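debug: dumping io for the single-chain case to check the tokenizer round-trip. Nothing else runs in this session.
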Amino acid sequence: MITRLELTNFGPMNRVEWNDLGPINLVIGNNGSGKTFLLKSLYTAMRTLEEFRRGDDPRTAEEILWDKLYWTFQPDQKRIGDLVTKGTAEGLRFSCSVDGNAFSYGFDSETEKVFTPFDNRVPPRASNSVFLPAKEVLSLQKIILKSREREQDFGFDDTYLDLARALAQSTTQGKNYPEFADSRRRLEDMLGGKIEFDVVSDRWRFRNSDNWWFPIGMTAEGVKKIAILDTLL
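debug: decoded output
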């Protein structure tokens, strides 16, 4: 778990120092204050730590971090140096503590791929963090995967791609933990049904408590967003 965060000159945020983070944290701010930037900075860090040394992936942590920053923030000039706060002579700095272990990096506005400094003391992780973006993903899943995996286009950032990939995994694999099963039942009761993937039509559909099926395009936006939690669990 992330317990501490400090960043300087990261997009719209000149400086953020956040200590004693808990299991659940609330970020409140005006439009344009950097809330999404803050969350995405944490997301790119965690995904870097999770993908590093996983399986046969030969990439270094720096290479993974560049990839996550580039495809998550998708800078106009095709270089991560664009993430440095405009009008400052100093560079960007990011540091966090994960389970008591430090992870930090920095770069200036002219940077393309080199991090100075870079320090990773976090052991390899087996978790897979997800970011729930503003737009619902279920009805866009195929478009997201095609846009990013086949065409390699900007548009849907890595938060959308990683979530679309997570939803594409079979829900019949893995353990059905009692805690998760109970949470899923509560979600189904709250929503009056659940989202399920129909392998015949190759589409997501909503099945209500009366066992009626509805196309995902005819399902309420709020239901589609919240129902993602059921599938992920």
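debug: round-trip ok. The longest strand covers residues 2-10.
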